[in-house]
Amino acid sequence: MSTSLEIQLKTLPDSPGVYQYYDKQDNILYVGKAKNLKKRVGSYFTKSHENAKTRILVQKIVSIKHIVVTTETDALLLENNLIKKYQPRYNIMLKDDKTYPWICIKKERFPRIFMTRRVIKDGSEYYGPYTNVRTVKVLLDLIRELYPLRTCKYDLSREKIAEKKYKVCLEYHLGNCSGPCEDFQNEDSYNDTIKAIRNIVKGNFKESLNKFHEIMKAFSDKMEFEEAQKIKEKLDLLSNYQSKSTIVSPSINNVDVFSIISDESYGYVNFFKIANGSIIQSHTTEIKKKLDETDKRILEMAVVEIRQRFNSISKEVYVPFEIDLGDKIKVTVPKLGDKKRIVELSERNAKYYRQEQFKQIKISDPDRHVKRIMTQMQKDLRLSEEPRHIECFDNSNIQGTNPVAACVVFKEGKPSKKEYRHYNIKTVEGPDDFASMEEVVFRRYKRLLSENLPLPQLIVIDGGKGQLSSALKSLDLLDLRGKIAIIGIAKRLEEIYYPGDPIPMYLDKRSETLKIVQFLRNEAHRFGITLHRNKRSKSAIQSELEQIPNIGKQTITSLLRKFKSAKRVKTATFKELQEIIGDARAKNIYQYFNS
Question: Region 414-440: what's the mean pLDDT?
């Protein structure tokens, strides 16, 4: 560390603020926030960092700049704004170049209501942004079904209406507009409609429902049942829309819900906006990790950015664990009830989004998909390198007969079937799985070494501690112990065993790593069983023909070469047999099967 950098570190204040790292070309490398600038920045230079990118970042830092702020909330907001402005190389960023749709209530007499992607600061009201255009269209269709609104762009000033400048259009005759252009509807009545619409857009349906109930009852009392039915249809529309969006207690109002699901390289953050017990907005975003950031760190960044993007002014957020958002926002970690369920729903949405992204990436970017799987396997199985080449062994024998073994090979997480190998057990008598495993592993890797072929990064043994120990004996003989990672998988509870460790590891039953290991094991078992069945069938055929008196192996071979199976030999005519093996032996076989 340079003397200049040491002086800068010593003179940092103990206040909350934002720090910026620069390299020797004066390019900004990283922006961060801290409760205590001196402690946080100092930790970069006193800790040994496991993450390689963090080590490289620290090596590049030549100068530090900082901005002191009053509160942690100010630090969060400032950090977010600086990241968006400078886009430092080592900062995570919520990239989103979409232009989201809004619902606009135009600032004018008899306001129009429409969807727009442009927010113009002209005093108009904007609600959103919405993450789905379909949601906006459904909501606008509902509003137009419930309330007559004008769609024309006329300047409906008092003077122009008084001068009778305009005539009602087709929308008026269709009943979609009440004709304010010809003064058929006054401004107060229209503004009452706008007030009701404003509540619906905010997720507050109560006032509109009550108002329609009152109107419907009034029509009914006057025996105007046709008009009452029209209002009932509007009530049903509104109630149906509300029922689709209400998923929690109506007491939960004006709250933001956030959750995160992450893997080695990416975090997936889901956001719900809740008003009057209804989810009125939902959005999930993918965030690429840069410096092995924690879920807590990513979620803090995402909450600030997403709330800014969606113009949220909610005073409370629900999250799955404690995060620091300053004093102005109440952070709640629900433990039970409706609040807990809404956080779990958010997490479920993040998981579904992650799965959808994986499916899309598998098609559009297979290299990234493979890299993610390999990185996850390396972490889950505690390997020193990614297992791009895996081999799995399985033994097959039934009551000690026809012992065989199989080796299946996976490259980049997929079966490489042309490299599968069958083995007939040569040195072992009887049903001895341990000795069979020792023989096959030795034969496999002695050959790879002698032919100078690449060795796998991981060996999977189908079996528990016994089979694993047997395989290790062969690796010791070949001086490969420690050069290739090796694990055993026991069938009963899917335990993963490691050399020298009597306590097994249990992977998450839903993890991709366990699914790939199970696929390997099942594929090895399937491949081994096919050879074993073939051998048993051949053996059964031969043994049946061998029961015939005075029939030798050469005769059996000639018959099978011609008829292909013992069943066809059984059904063959005497003449057919005679043509192949002569009169005496044909008579012997024919009488045996037909006596």
Answer: 82
